Amino acid sequence: MKIKVGTRGSRLALTQTNHVIDMLKTAHPELEAEVVIIKTKGDKILNMPLDKIGDKGLFVKEIETAMIEKKIDMAVHSMKDMPTDQPKGLVIVNPPAREDARDALILKEGLNSLEDIPQGGRIGTGAIRRISQILKHRPDLKFEPIRGNVETRMKKIETEGLDGVVLAAAGLKRLDLEHRITNMLELDVVLPSPAQGILAIECRENDEKMLGLLKSIQDEEATIQARAERTFLEAVNGGCHIPVGAYCHVDGDNVKLQALLGKNDGSDLNKVQWTGNIADVEKGARELAEKLKEAVHG
Q1: What is the tens place of the pLDDT at every residue in 198-227?
Q2: Domains in the chain, ordered, with CATH?
Q3: Is the separation of the CB atoms in 104 and 172 below 8 Å?
Q4: Which of 37, 55, 245, 249 is paired with 264 by a 20 to 30 Å CA distance?
Q5: Confidence band (pLDDT; 50, 70, 90) for 16?
Q6: CA distances from 138 to 103, 118, 133, 214 (A)
Q7: Interatomic CA distance for residues 188 and 190, integer angstroms
Q8: Residues 103-130, buried b or exposed e (16+ Cβ, 10 A)?
């Protein structure tokens, strides 16, 4: 069986896609796969912050169109980039195992932690979720929006004289750049974007062969985490424009879901958590969403 797999063209996107293909080939040695690179709107517009040019569909719409038109059979995305509403005829299947969900701090030489950054230091990130949470710990810091692939954003420490940048640990680890991480930003400092570190594998909902293939690489814990965190995201109507974070910790049949929400200027930041049984995790996610919306917006 031969399949066509759609992806963006960055090194991280290709690494993630090839990782999924390798897992599929391990489970199905007879499988042949062709990688199809598709440029998205988010890849073409690099001179503006994400929250100024649109929402999460920026990095997926063109790929989804190719799938609907049967130019590709499946696609691999970062789940944190995925809108919560699916185009008709497509489905995100249960994901493979999750990579590290946390954010990571990459600092210039001589600095070893968030506390080491000089007064008024400059950090590269345009994400309101990261900015608003870091400001709780270091209200003196300044933030510069940065775009581009992982390597380009790290390079801006030198080219723009930044004290550091904040990136998702998952991408750095998948690219074998873990040695560049100065500090992990723990969950009590910066709660990650919902489903950060989880891969979203998408295919046509009526493609039984593809759906059968993909069952072989699914991970139960990541599936529960994705369900909980994306249910919360959908319930708060979150996107690029507001600080929204979530992380679901799974312990046997029990879960702890931590969630964060603030106003679109980063103010009124509130964090709450829910603990309960796996069976009730979507209900719990919606309860947290309602509680946070009431706290932030009244």
Answers
A1: 999 999 999 999 999 999 999 999 999 999
A2: 1-96+198-217 (3.40.190.10), 103-185 (3.40.190.10), 219-298 (3.30.160.40)
A3: yes
A4: 249
A5: very high
A6: 16, 10, 9, 44
A7: 6
A8: bbbbbeeebeebeebeeebbbbbbbbbb
